[in-house]
Design goal:
3 helices; HU Protein, Chain A; elongated; alpha+beta; 42% helix; 30% strand
């Protein structure tokens, strides 16, 4: 499912115009992005939890030369599916 498919689905289910549905979907995605940017957790009951995860610094190898390189620590977005979502997917 693409973002366009999601917008079409929201428009149909909520009886909205495509423009209103696009703005609604974008507002939700922007809200999740902004909360994660601040380091907050976003919990959607029955769906799952979006959070920021920290990855530790580590050593890696350059595949071309085989030299050891240092990979810096960083933060990445993470998602943990909720019970209801897991149950539906099974």
């Amino acid at each position: 499912m693409t973002k366009k498919d999601l917008i079409d689905l929201v428009a149909r289910k909520a009886s909205l115009t495509n423009k209103a549905a696009r703005e609604s979907v974008q507002a939700v995605l922007d809200g999740v992005r902004d909360a994660l940017k601040k380091g907050e957790k976003v919990v959607v009951t029955g769906f799952g939890t979006f959070s920021v995860r920290s990855r530790a610094a580590r050593k890696g190898r350059n595949p071309r030369t085989g030299d050891v390189i240092n990979i810096a620590a960083r933060k990445t977005p993470g998602f943990t599916a909720g019970k209801a979502l897991k149950r539906v997917v099974r």
